[in-house]
Design brief:
mainly alpha, Rossmann fold, 3-stranded parallel beta sheet, 54% helix, globular, binds tryptophanyl-5'AMP
Length: 338
């Protein structure tokens, strides 16, 4: 069973996540949760960006496992395969082909300005490879292949979306309206979830050596609660959003993103409570909200045939869609279609 592609009237929501490390609460609240809700309004296409992952060295066995686990996690979170298409980037060759073409329409200067490139080259100074540098071009190819209208992402990907828009407009200026110029969809709450131990820095997979800083979607409920209990708080005792309260503000954002409550409502609810009680409630709320996702993930892990069949049918369907745009682009730039 796959997405109904005949529904041409709906706009397209496209996004992706790397299968590098396990998904954490930042990924979930900043991006993935929005992917699920956008399904009501959009035709959705969600990718597992494993080509992007190898810009940093990976253990092949782990990478293969995580790629498949992430596919199951998309389903477990509520991506409905009847309405959405999900697939592995490495199984759809037009991504790499379009990325090459777009590389020729992207400038070294604009890629060199990307903050993520600067950060990653500092962290991996022994492996500053060309893939790391041209990473945003591959990401642009992902998005532009499917004429995506909106791209639900966390705040840290905003700059990459901007470069994608620039590349698309530059190409369109030369060849006519080939690409849809996409809009970022960044939620108001939890667009940048911060670490529980270091609330001045975003929660990030690369902080895996400080396990208490990150909450993984597949952490056991008791582990989630204990990580929240240990979360760093701020001076004073008020529970409110404030620039000098990064720890408490982050916990409030997490709470609001999970429950859907408005920030002011959450502040009044917790007025007069101690930090310890507050952290416990946030931890329990998060643990409860991910429990059904974990249950579904475990069920899917036992249902290999169903998952394999879905991977196959989605890959076929995605390739057909991607090939259409690639052929159009090849014609525009002057390649023979044989
Ligand atoms: P990735 O795999 O790092 O993260 C996946 C999504 O999670 C968001 N995110 C966060 N949101 C809030 N708070 C945080 N602490 C936090 N950490 C991560 C990210 O913004 C992202 O939306 N380059 C992309 C993957 C990609 C992609 C694409 C995205 C490849 N092709 C095409 C959109 C469209 C990345 O590395 O995301």
């Amino acid at each position: 069973m796959a997405m109904d592609v005949s529904d041409v009237k709906k706009k397209i929501s496209y996004s992706a996540m790397q299968p590098t490390g396990l998904p954490h609460l930042g990924n979930y609240l900043g991006a993935l949760k929005n992917w699920v809700s956008l399904q009501d309004e959009y035709r959705c296409i969600y990718c597992i960006a494993n080509l992007h992952s190898i810009t940093v060295r990976q253990d092949p066995v782990n990478l293969r496992k995580r790629t498949r686990d992430l596919f199951m996690l998309y389903l477990a979170m509520g991506i409905d395969p009847k309405r959405s298409l999900l697939y592995f980037q490495s199984a759809v060759p037009p991504h790499a082909e379009l990325a090459w073409i777009l590389n020729c329409y992207t400038y070294m200067g604009e890629l060199g300005r990307m903050t993520q490139y600067k950060d990653k080259s500092q962290k991996h100074s022994d492996n500053i490879n060309a893939g790391l540098f041209s990473y945003p071009v591959l990401m642009s190819a992902d998005i532009l292949l499917y004429s995506s209208d909106v791209v639900p992402i966390g705040e840290d990907q905003r700059q990459h979306l901007e470069i994608c828009r620039d590349i698309a407009s530059r190409f369109n200026n030369i060849y006519g309206d080939v690409f849809v110029v996409p809009e970022a969809y960044i939620g108001k709450i939890a667009a940048r979830v911060m670490g529980l131990q270091e609330p001045e820095k975003k929660m990030s997979k690369s902080d895996g050596d400080n396990e208490n800083n990150l909450v993984y979607l597949l952490d056991k409920p008791e582990v989630i609660i204990s990580k929240f209990k240990r979360a760093v708080t701020d001076s004073g005792n008020e529970i409110k959003y404030a620039p000098d309260k990064p720890g408490i503000s982050n916990l409030l954002s997490i709470y609001c993103a999970v429950t859907g409550e408005k920030p002011e409502a959450a502040e009044s609810k917790f007025a007069g409570k101690g930090y310890g009680d507050f952290k416990l409630i946030v931890g329990e709320t998060v643990a409860e909200s991910v429990r059904p996702i974990q249950q579904k993930f475990n069920e899917l892990s036992k249902n290999k045939d169903y998952v394999d069949a879905l991977i196959r049918s989605n890959t076929e369907q995605t390739n057909a869609l991607a090939q259409r745009m690639l052929t159009k682009v090849k014609k525009k730039v002057g390649f023979p279609i044989v």
